[in-house]
Amino acid sequence: MLSQWFKLTPPRILVLGFAAIILTGSLLLMMPQANTTGERLPFVDALFTATSATCVTGLVVRDTGLYFTTFGQIVILTLIQVGGLGFMTMATLFSLVFKRRISLRDRLLLQEAMKQNSMEGIVRLIRKVLVYSLVIEASAALLFTIRWVFDMPFGQAVYYGVFHAVSLFNNAGFDLFGEYRSLMGYVNDPLVNIVAMFLIVSGGLGFIVLSELVDFRRTRKLSLHSKIVLSMTSALILAGAVVIFVFEFTNVKTMGSLDWSGKIWGSFFQSIATRTAGANSVDIGGLRQASQFFVIMLMFIGASPGSTGGGIKTTTFMVLVGAVISMIRGRHDLVLFRYRMTQERIFKAVTITMLALFLIISVAMVLSTTEDASFLSILFETTSAFATVGLSMGLTMDLTDIGKVILCFMMFTGRLGLLTLAYALGPKKGKELYRHPEGKMIIG
Questions:
Q1: The pLDDT of residue 334
Q2: N or C, which end of the chain is more exposed by having fewer CB within 10 Å?
Q3: Transmembrane stretches, by residue range (predicted)?
């Protein structure tokens, strides 16, 4: 039995692979050449930054634009790209370039990393992931460069364009503007808003959905997964924008002083970025408490499966909502887009949600004893870390070392997924050979 704990199953390889990348990034960021002070960055701060970058979160304890040198920023950018696409995807890239055969073990790892139900067409999907990522990031970098060349030297505009295109597409939220401003200076700018929102949404939809959207003109069909993702994403974006617009319309700390176009741009950008990206065009700490709590709920839901975002995922939330509606209507089956959901899918959605709630609440309670801050800000930061969002009410910079380590664990867990981590930590059980008699109890 002991040998089962040391068997390198796909979930365990993913956990160890991400841990190795984070450790390597931490050591590189600790080098004096990585920061502008010329001193060695403390290990806890380097670990936090590397974890945030690899887990494409965006929470920072040091100002990325002012504290880190170009070398340090490139290390962070590399961690974002590898962490966003997944280290197995990057390894497959090298295998394809050098025409190395993709083994069965590699295909199993890719299946686990991309949250696929089978290995069929997995290598073809990875090729599409690499092509789509390169094309989208390059196009966005060009558009950003064209816009920012009016605000800064050409070389800096190119560098900023590439960095922010990669960061936003991978839903990381790191920025180079300094003073933790993110995109607040461009809240009224149509081009920056449109490009940034497109990057965030395309990265958060998932590569399966992107692939089907690209092929839609030829196939004229979408899978059930894509239909659920697109419908739920659209509903959440619209609902989030309306709520933020209403709650922050007169708030002088955020959107009260903006004109109508600024309020609309700010509402939609924050609704989109809140669920996964970590970028912000308004002051998150200045939001009203009602808005901050609503943002927590959006962060908890997160992006979609197989994407660069975190959270419990839009499909999980859709199944939960559908199950509640079906129960209220007295129906035995959950039907979405004329397809019946199996009990296994419903149980999995409930399991993921309950585990996430338990983990977030437990960690928030622990942090409330180690950190000197309000419970709302602690809950906000904890949810942001778990959902790999990266938004902050300002607590991150003041965290104790214990708090930083705890949030590193949350970001790591959120990026890999609760079930993947659970499968990695425990040996897989065999198939049950019998069933217990059915029991009856009163519920509700």
A1: 87
A2: C
A3: 12-31, 74-98, 129-150, 191-216, 228-247, 293-325, 346-367, 373-393, 405-425
Backbone angles phi, psi at 39, to 5 degrees: -105, 165
For residue 234, what are the contacts with CB-CB under 8 A and spacing of at least 6? Answer: none
Contact 347, 123 (CB under 8 A): no
What's the confidence (pLDDT) of residue 309? 79
Least confident of 13-17, 388-392, 407-411: 13-17
The Cα 300–Cα 316 span in angstroms is 11
Task: For residue 313, give the 3-state DSSP assignment.
Answer: coil
Cα separation, 198 vs 320, in Å, equals: 27
d(CA 88, CA 225): 23
Contacts of 385 (CB under 8 A, 6+ apart): 57, 59, 407, 410, 411, 414
Rounded distance between C-alpha atoms, residue 312 and residue 179, angstroms? 31
Average pLDDT, the chain: 85
Structure tokens at 329: 């209507």
Question: What's the rounded Cα separation, in Å, for the pair 100 and 104?
Answer: 13
Which residues sit opposite 335 in a β-bridge?
340
Region 218-243: what's the mean pLDDT? 91
Tens digit of each residue's pLDDT (9 = 90 or more) over 107-118? 555 555 555 555
> Looking at the predicted structure, is the pLDDT value of residue 1 above 50?
no
User: How remote is the C-alpha of 154 from its chain's centroid?
Assistant: 31
CB 208, CB 314: distance < 8 Å: no
How far, in Å, CA of 25 to CA of 365, rounded? 30
DSSP code of 249? T
- Cβ atoms 207, 306 nearer than 8 A: yes
Asked whether 389 and 57 are in contact (CB, 8 A), the reply is yes
Distance (Å, rounded) from C-alpha 280 to C-alpha 31? Answer: 30
The candidate with the shortest Cα–Cα distance to 88, out of 65, 115, 69, is 115
Q: In this structure, what token pair is assigned to residue 187?
A: 């809240």
Label residue 340 left, alpha or beta by phi (over 0 means left) and psi (-120 to 50 means alpha).
beta
| Residue 172, amino acid | A
In the prediction, which pLDDT does 442 show?
64
Residue 435, phi then psi, degrees to nearest 5: -125, 145
CB within 8 A of 285, min separation 6: which ones?
A: 392, 393, 394
- For residue 65, the tally of other CB atoms under 10 A from its CB is 17
pTM: 0.87
Cα 52 from Cα 70, distance rounded (Å): 18
Exposed/middle/buried for 257, CB within 10 Å: 0-12, 13-18, 19+?
exposed
